[in-house]
Amino acid sequence: MSKSLSLNPDQLAAFGAELDALRNRHLAELGEADARYIRRVRASVRITELAGRLMLFAGFFPPTWCLGVLLLAFSKIVDNMELGHNVMHGQYDFMNDPEFSGKHFEWDHSCTSDAWRRTHNYQHHTYTNVLGKDHDIGYGTVRIFAEQRWRPFYLLQPLWALLQAVFFEYAIAVFDLKLDRYLRGRAKLSELKVKAPPVLRKLWRKFIKDYVFFPLIAGPHWLAVLAGNAVANLLRNLWTFTVIFCGHFTEDAEVFPLSVLKDETRGGWYVRQLRGSSNLSGSRWLHFLTGNLSHQIEHHLFPDIPARRYASMAVEVREICQRYGQHYNTGSFAGQFFTVLVRLFRHAFPSRPAMQPV
Amino acid sequence: MPLIPAALVNLALPLTRPLAAFLREDVFDYYGRLLHPQLQLRRVFARLKARRLEGEATVVLTLSPSRNWRGFRAGQHVAVTLEKDGVRHTRRYSPMRAANGRIEIAIKRLKEGLVSSLLHEEADSIGYLEIGQAEGDFVLPDTLPPRLLFLAAGSGITPILAMLRELKARGYQGELNLLYYGRQRNQMAYLDELRAYPGLHLHVCLTGEQAQAGEQAGRFSAAQLDALVPKAEGSAVFACGSHGFTEAVQAVWQQRGWQGLACESFTPPTWHLEDDKPVTLTFARARRQLAGRTGGTLLEQAEAHGLKPASGCRMGICNTCTCQKREGAVRDLRTGEISTKPDETIRLCITAPVGNVVLDL
Ligand code: FES
């Protein structure tokens, strides 16, 4: 059951206009401060990566090894979230800098950035939480909404989710290929032959880099480096998985039938983004390490505004939502994640959607 | 202060080329930049060596590009990029050969030109500038014709002077005529060098003040051309200046059915505020020109003509339809803002032309 009032067309239009005005105010301000910020973020990624890898070269000496792993994991997390994810949304295109161009950015992740731009920027952000259109609902492996059709496969979904968390980057990497369609004979193998090579190439490159190249040049300490890289990747995977699952699968997040897309207005689109997303409250560090996906609501309303602005935009968004009787879904990290786990276990078993008010 | 000397960097640059297949360019460039601004895999940074005034309105910068630069043919242009308030701005200038493998670019100060005023006022604080590879086919032929006629207006003199310097270097012996138009004498760049050029018939034509002895008055016209250069027919001709200027030249050549005219023009984009005015949309890579209208999105107009630019959400959020606008005036449909900047990133689905537009598509 939705905690938000339903709005009539006039209210929807007014709601959308207020958010548009907020967005245009920030668009007009873009400049020096944003550019300096993202350059610093990039510097932090590069410097911690270098430091982390150097420390791992010192072998299994516990303090440096642990620090090396943490630095490398930090670098990968920030690279994927605050840097890569945001830059690929085109948030920094205004700089006209080829190194921060959303179209050309490449990240330290097994998923090719082209596939990411297609599945995430386009499908997920346009059709957020629309059943059958937004494939990010459950990522094809888990059932977290009663509205998804139940299959016996989902009985073991806590296990599937755990596996997915551990191998998150690979799961995302092959996600775009939608392999299940081939297994069920719904798509031709010839199509796979075209789509698979770039994905495999990227997987292979990342694999060689972390598990062959760096261990090799470490010489006698190869095992320390190999293990360090593996743990850093694991930490990154677990972290990104947790943050992303908190974005749209919390208790109050809503899903929508395909029919909402028909004649959806700008205001309607905004409302859907709002109701399908959930925020995490916390310290500045939490916001930074989640790449500001802790402001998932603002990110979905304004995906192309630099994420460093979400915290200040959130104050106004909340105020606007309150005036229009819209529920603003936020909570602590632990609290929100707990509700995700509840959904994960609950909907492993057959369940029925609560009645929607007509 | 760079950590390693420029000479060493430039020795090393050709050696880094094989790395390009294995490395991410932005990662290499990031670390390279920390050591020396020119240590980049492909991008070219040029050291600003000297700066002087030419006439009263033009500043000439002497640049020494890194070895990533592949050189140029006289008459071509390069993109010069500067950053202001976190935004990089690109303008095109014609490089000219200078001593010691260096190049010169001349920048005329424009009233509201952001880059030109930066280069005029803050050039002293600039150590390195990013430049692109040379482009353009406004160049001298390999075998030189016996008679050459140059027509230049305002800063259109720079590609022409680049050619003249090259001709001197190649020991050209033929007949050389130059008609050089400017509003005021003291605003015209390179007059001293041109006057001293051996064998050049220079005609300085003033359009905005009284002509003195040895100078002409008035804009380009067929009559003036006939009076100054009786043997214009059959010359190889290079004309460069504003759009209006090259059009006037073209008209004369067309009317008389003469051959051998090459033109290059630059015009600040113009725009209409009303919707539904006809404009030309150029898709540079597809080599197609379409008839467009102001007000409709570029994406829809391209599709209506059968082109298929990449797109997704069609509402400005997914960044799939992003591309470079090379030049032209466009309106951002979300904010209503009009932009005339060359070389900027736009999204086709939320951008409408308000004048002629050239896209890098
Ligand atoms: S098609 Fe999505 S931004 Fe233009």
Percent helix range of chain B: 10-25%
Give the SSE string of chain A. Answer: HHHHHHHHHHEHHHEH
Query: What is the terminal separation of chain A in angstroms?
Result: 11 Å
Q: Report the largest inter-chain contact.
A: A-B, 40 and 29 residues
Content of β-strand of chain B: 25-35%
Outline type of chain A: globular
- The helix-and-strand class of chain B reads alpha/beta
Number of strands of chain A: 2
Distance between the termini of chain B: 40 Å
> What is the CATH H-level superfamily of the largest domain in chain B?
Translation factors
Question: DSSP helix count of chain B?
Answer: 8
How would you characterize this protein structure?
- The complex is a heterodimer of chains A (358) and B (361).
- With 358 residues, chain A is mainly α.
- In chain A, 61% of the residues lie in helices and 2% in strands.
- Chain A has helices at 9-29, 32-56, 62-88, 113-126, 157-166, 168-175, 179-183, 189-217, 222-248, 266-276, 284-289, 296-301, 310-323, 333-346, and strands at 279-281, 330-332.
- In chain A, helix 2 runs antiparallel to helix 3 and helix 5 crosses helix 6 (168-175).
- Chain B has 361 residues and is an alpha/beta fold.
- Chain B folds into three domains: 6-131, Beta Barrel (Elongation Factor Tu (Ef-tu), domain 3); 147-265, Nucleotide-binding domain of ferredoxin-NADP reductase (FNR) module (Rossmann fold, 3-Layer(aba) Sandwich); 278-359, Beta-grasp domain (Ubiquitin-like (UB roll), Roll), CATH 3.10.20.
- Chain B has helices at 6-16, 25-35, 114-121, 157-169, 191-195, 222-228, 243-256, 298-304; strands at 44-54, 58-65, 78-84, 87-93, 96-97, 103-108, 128-131, 147-153, 175-182, 200-206, 215-217, 236-242, 261-266, 278-283, 288-293, 322-332, 338-339, 344-347, 351-359.
- In chain B, the strands form three sheets. In chain B, strands 4-3-7-1-2-6-5 form a seven-stranded antiparallel beta sheet. Chain B has a six-stranded parallel beta sheet with strand order 11-10-9-8-12-13, with helices on both faces. In chain B, strands 14, 15, 16, 17, 18 and 19 form a six-stranded mixed beta sheet that branches.
- The two termini of chain B are 40 Å apart.
- The structure holds FE2/S2 (inorganic) cluster (FES).
- Chain B: It holds the Pfam family NAD_binding_1.
- Chain B: It comes from Chitinimonas viridis.
- Chain B: This is Ferredoxin reductase.
